[in-house]
Amino acid sequence: MTIILHHLQRSQSERIIWLCEELNIPYELKLYQRDKHTLLAPPEYKALHPSGTAPIIYDGPVKLAETDAITEYLLAKYAPTPNALVPAPSAPNFADYVFWRHFANGTLGPSTGRVMMFAFAQVDPANPAAKGVQARFELAAKMVDDRLGESKWLAGDEFSLADLMTVWNLTGLRQFNPFELTPYPNVVSWLERVGERPAYKRAMEKGDPGFKPLLGAEKPEAIKRG
After folding, report:
1. Any alpha helices (H) in 88-127, and if so which ranges?
2. What is the mean pLDDT of each run of 10 residues along the chain (226 residues)?
3. Domain GST C-terminal: where (predicted)?
4. Which of 13, 34, 100, 137 is surrounded by the fewest CB atoms within 10 Å?
5. pTM flag (> 0.90)
6. Residue of 17, 13, 71 lying closest to 205 (CA atoms)
7. Per-position b or e across 34-60, b if 16+ CB within 10 A of its CB
């Protein structure tokens, strides 16, 4: 039975396409465009799962949402053991892998998202809460940059799921609240390496054909409504 991967275009569900491409997990891809006025998921996507948010997969009777849940499910059921994306618990870099893999959605993603939401709400950047949110994001981004200054990939010498889970937060998410990556040169070099991965190229071409991944340091153009 083939997994059906429901991809909301220009969203974090690109990570699940990429994961499947890296591990050669067969899947059927269904694409959904964002609502042109709200930029949110369209009604037909929201109807796929009670959460109504990307990503969503169907695997026979299983209907699963949440990036971390889907990732854990796919790795447990369909990935070869061992696989190249997850270091063995006995590996010397296993703790680094665990930290950075969870830092992506536990700290970096939420801090980037809060900055975005404050911008959407047009909160004055001088507001103490806005300043605190911005400082938290800058700390998280600097931690990633510092790590990549001492290591080729987040978990060590080899690409891992930690990298795959982190990329969206510093690329695609920037289209909703554009910012430069110039202060983070090690991140920019890392993204260049990411862009060279065949599985990443395939995932982006399949999931968002015609869209150029935001891998450069420059401030990207904001996604447009209407």
Report:
1. 94-103, 109-120
2. 94 98 97 94 97 96 97 95 93 98 98 94 95 97 98 98 98 95 98 98 98 97 85
3. 60-214
4. 34
5. yes
6. 17
7. beeeeeebeeebbebbeeebbbbbbbe
Q: Residue 30's pLDDT is what?
A: 98
CA count, 13 A, side-chain hemisphere, 207:
30
CA distance linking residue 216 with residue 7, whole number of Å = 24
Across the strands, what pairs with 153? Answer: 156
Contact of 13 with 64, CB cutoff 8 Å? no
> Among candidates 225, 145, 125, 223, which has minimal Cα distance to 177?
223
At residue 22, what are phi and psi to the nearest 5 degrees? -65, -40
Residue ranges and CATH numbers for the domains of the chain are 3-78 (3.40.30.10), 94-207 (1.20.1050.10)
Neighbour order of strands in the sheet with 62-65: 27-32, 3-8, 56-59, 62-65
pLDDT of res. 111: 97
pLDDT at 224: 85
Contact between 21 and 202 (Cβ < 8 Å): yes
d(CA 138, CA 77): 37
User: Which pLDDT does position 7 carry in this prediction?
Assistant: 98
